[in-house]
Amino acid sequence: MQLGMVGLGRMGGNMTRRLLRGGHEVVAYDRDSAAVGRAEQEGATGASTLRDLVAGLHAPRAVWIMVPAGDVTERTIDELAEALFPGDTVIDGGNTYFKDDVARAEKLSARKLHYVDVGTSGGVWGLERGYCMTIGGPAGIVERLDPLFRTLAPGPGSNARKGYVHVGPAGAGHFVKMIHNGIEYGMMQAFAEGLEILRESGSDRVDPRHRYDLDLHDIAEVWRHGSVVSSWLLDLLEISLREDRDLSAYSGYVQDSGEGRWTVQTAIEEDVPAHVLTASLFTRFQSRQDDSYAARVLSALRHQFGGHVEQKRNGGGP
């Protein structure tokens, strides 16, 4: 098939390469001309503007957007809508809030344009491993675009077992991906807490009879084989520990890209208790506070009501 790709960063660039390797024709655009040049070296047709990109496509056109969620995506879609023609399709594969998808689909429908949202998972490994995709939009349009999804997915086929599935109308694809990312937060937090407990078993705070000097890399590696917690996240953890057993290259500042917040917000709207997902999100917030006022409040209150002396950061105290 022929596809226009807007956004050639870590995800969009690798998706373009995978599509080209799969025999598709890609017209590529990015605000960074160097990124366009790299795509051209891979076999894509470069475009200098969005209108040039549209001009390089034949009807019915399909344009896939991989740019940051929010205003950037909104402006890009608005500009594309001015250039596209009735019957064309806009595909958003970024991390968009699903309610925005619904509004966009309605707005584009008034112009006789189709809208498809694709929750895309795979990160920087997707070029070789493929991408897991949950897709929202009109069934007929999704079916027409199937060759693209089949090439991007981890394996051949056209069902959920092969890495992609049409889950419902506009917004459904990003809704499912949002919950996926919320679950991911919780899984990552569980690994983080478990490994810290293992690591601290060697601390001088532990009774010498129960103290263990554990090799966390060896433990992560053995868990990858036959354990019920084996997963791609565990595979990535093993790689990290293999490269740096103390993880000394990391500061511990943990960012979030929005989906975790949206997941918690949706849980509130649906009256669904989401203890693990909410706690994992708040832990990321806490990681950004080197000197947390909230923690100081807790310490002060403990001292006032119980006479507890604060343990110092250097490990001192009673």
Note the topology.
Layout: E1 2-6, H1 10-21, E2 25-29, H2 33-42, E3 45-46, H3 50-55, E4 62-65, H4 71-83, E5 89-92, H5 98-109, E6 114-121, H6 126-129, E7 132-136, H7 139-144, H8 146-152, E8 164-168, H9 172-200, H10 216-223, H11 232-243, H12 259-269, H13 275-287, H14 293-306
Parallel strand pairs: 1-2, 1-4, 2-3, 4-5, 5-6, 7-8
Antiparallel strand pairs: 6-7
Strand content: 5-15%
* Overall pLDDT metric: 91
User: What form results from the Cα inertia axes?
Assistant: elongated
Structure annotation, total helices: 14
Distance between the termini: 69 Å
**Total count of strands:** 8
Report helical residue fraction: 40-55%
Q: For the largest beta sheet, what order do the strands appear in spatially?
A: 3-2-1-4-5-6-7-8
Instruction: Report on the biggest sheet.
Output: 8 strands, mixed
Rg result: 24 Å
Structural class: alpha/beta
SSE order: EHEHEHEHEHEHEHHEHHHHHH
> Which regions contain 5 or more consecutive residues with pLDDT less than 50?
314-318
